[in-house]
Structures are given as C-alpha cells and as structure tokens.
Amino acid sequence: MLSSLKRHSYENASQYCTRDLDASVAFYSTLLGAQPAKKLDDYALFITEQPGLELALDFDKDANAPFGQHFGIVVDSPEAVEAQIERLNVAGYATDVEREETCCYANQTKVWASDPEGRRWETYFVHEDTEERDQDDAGATCCA
Q1: How deeply is 29 buried, as exposed, middle or buried, from its count of CB atoms within 10 A (0-12, 13-18, 19+)?
Q2: What is the C-alpha separation between 101 and 55, in angstroms, rounded?
Q3: Which residue from 27, 65, 75, 138 has the fewest beta carbons nearer than 10 Å?
C-alpha cells in the first residue's frame, strides 16, 4: 500500500522524542499501517517493509519537534492517497487534502497530517513533473 518512505533528508532510520508515547504510537500505527515491533513504557520501535523504515519513539516530557520540518511518504497511486485519507479520518486525525495541485515542481495528490508533537507528514502521489514550483501565483510557497 505505502510504497516507500522519503524523509526530506533522505534517511530511512529515524528517532523522535515525544511527550505522549501512546498518542504517538497510535498516530504512527495509523500513518504506517503497522504496529510497533517493540513497545515499552518509554520506547516504541516500528520496523516496516513498506515503507522501508525503522522509526524509534522515545518518551521525553520536554520533547519539542523542530519548527518547519516535514516528512513524506510517496505512494504508487492516487488511490493509495485516498486510502491514507480514509485511515487518518477514521482514526480522528485532522487532515489537509490537496488533489492534483502543483507543489515542488510536480503535480501531486496528497494528504497532510501531524503527529502529536507537530511533525507534519505528507502522503503523496506524483501525477507528473512540472516547470512551476507552486500553483499559487500570490507568492506563497507550498509545503510551508
């Protein structure tokens, strides 16, 4: 279903701190369509084949996600984005949906959701590459 994970810094192993481990496990279980391989009181580890990812979550009562970061999961079809929208909505997560919009030199369909610490994730399908960076002529930058 989810074909690959592309973190914008192009890493496939990540570790995030969270103030609410249970809420983060619930979010990433929904986002990744998988349960953690390991779950302890202060730690959870996701290891997934599709997308290929090792994601560790550590409890830290003072955790604070850096502002402005976002991460992406590219999928093989717009139907996979729609399935992600459905999973996130059923689980009660707020989503922003963009269908066939131009962003970052590509026409894409995507859904955005944020983890409990505010890390923004996009699940997206690229319809085609474009010569334009953004669709918005008012000077707004997409993905910001």
Answers
A1: middle
A2: 29
A3: 138
Say how far apart CA 125 and CA 42 lie, in whole Å: 34
Phi, psi of 79 (to 5 degrees): -65, -35
- In DSSP terms, 129 is beta-bridged to 106
Q: In the numeric block, which tokens belong to residue 49? A: 């084949």
Cα gap 140→129, rounded to integer Å: 19
**DSSP reduced 3-state for 31:** helix
Q: Shortest CA distance to 70 belongs to which of 104, 17, 111, 120?
A: 120
Report how far Cα 37 is from the mean position of its chain's Cα atoms.
19
| pLDDT score of 30 more than 60 | yes
pTM over 0.85: no
Residue 6 pLDDT grade (very low, low, confident, very high; cuts 50, 70, 90) = very low
Q: Between the CA of residue 58 and those of 19, 62, 100, 134, what are the distances in Å?
A: 9, 11, 36, 36
> To the nearest whole number, what is the mean pLDDT of the chain?
85
- At 51 the pLDDT is 77
CA–CA separation, 37 and 17 (whole Å): 17
Amino acid at 144: A
